[in-house]
């Protein structure tokens, strides 16, 4: 049996409306109001306007949605996906995330489990990760029994529905096709040249941290924010194109992503702005 062939995570288009990606929300609007409902979600202004996200006591949750087999929808089994799922779970575990592996769930089962996770208290968590390994097309993604949009999943964790993840990064990694077009290969020539480093600064640590004493707020502002702020979407392919998977070794996208996580974990990586 052939096991090393490449397979595309794509399916025929279905009559479905809209694109799976959420649309950008309105700009932030401030309204000063000292009489604030204490039940409304609150965030310190310094955290909201900071250039970096705040690191909390715990990394948080990392969910891996792994769809291998589909219920009579004319969709091929996604051989090789377990390699991707194992790779992701191992990397997230090594970073200290609480991993949840959701395998071959129907849309109803998947939505219920994600709502359960969103209902947990994430106030001491730094971030939320969700990797989605499944079939897809330009209309959306597939659970094992029916199609769904990416926003069906992301809306569960927005500022309205998951308030303890407010102002925290929510990263969705999607290994699925976004259409049935194959990418066009381009042959280029690569010219070797000496590596030149210009305007380099000495690698000397500089302590820029300024200790601050906690300050009680003297007033409270009402801030209107987009519900889908702080989301990052990482796709295996561009809109309209197939995404590829090796039936033995998994996908090049997830494999490389996990390699980069391993590099960061080993302290060899560099995070750039």
Automatic annotation (TrEMBL):
Query: Domain of life here?
Result: Eukaryota
GO MF term set: cysteine-type endopeptidase activity
Gene3D superfamilies, sorted: 3.40.50.1460
- What's one Pfam family here? Peptidase_C14
Report residue spans for region: Disordered: 1-40
Return the GO cellular component terms, semicolon-separated: AIM2 inflammasome complex; IPAF inflammasome complex; NLRP3 inflammasome complex
State the family named in the UniProt similarity comment for this chain: Belongs to the peptidase C14A family.
Protein name, entry field: Caspase-3
């Amino acid at each position: 049996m052939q096991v090393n062939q490449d397979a595309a995570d794509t399916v025929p288009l279905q009559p479905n409306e809209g694109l799976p990606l959420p649309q950008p929300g309105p700009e932030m609007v401030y309204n000063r109001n000292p009489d604030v409902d204490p039940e409304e979600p609150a965030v310190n202004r310094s955290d909201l306007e900071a250039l970096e996200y705040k690191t909390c006591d715990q990394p948080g949750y990392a969910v891996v949605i792994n769809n291998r087999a589909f219920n009579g929808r004319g969709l091929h089994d996604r051989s090789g996906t377990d390699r991707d799922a194992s790779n992701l779970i191992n990397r997230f575990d090594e970073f200290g995330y609480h991993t949840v592996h959701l395998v071959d769930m129907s849309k109803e089962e998947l939505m219920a489990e994600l709502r359960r996770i969103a209902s947990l208290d994430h106030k001491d968590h730094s971030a939320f990760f969700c990797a989605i390994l499944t079939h897809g097309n330009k209309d959306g993604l597939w659970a094992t029994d029916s199609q769904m949009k990416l926003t069906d999943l992301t809306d569960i964790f927005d500022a309205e529905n998951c308030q303890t993840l407010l102002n925290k990064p929510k990263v969705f990694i999607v290994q699925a096709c976004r259409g049935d077009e194959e990418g066009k290969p381009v042959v280029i020539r690569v010219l070797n040249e000496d590596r030149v480093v210009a305007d380099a600064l000495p690698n000397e640590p500089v302590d820029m941290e300024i200790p601050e004493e906690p300050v009680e707020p003297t007033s409270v502002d009402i801030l209107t924010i987009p519900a889908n702020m702080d989301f990052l979407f990482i796709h295996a392919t561009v809109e309209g194109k197939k995404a590829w998977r090796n039936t033995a070794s998994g996908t090049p996208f997830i494999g490389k992503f996990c390699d980069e996580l391993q590099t960061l974990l080993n302290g060899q990586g560099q995070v750039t702005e």
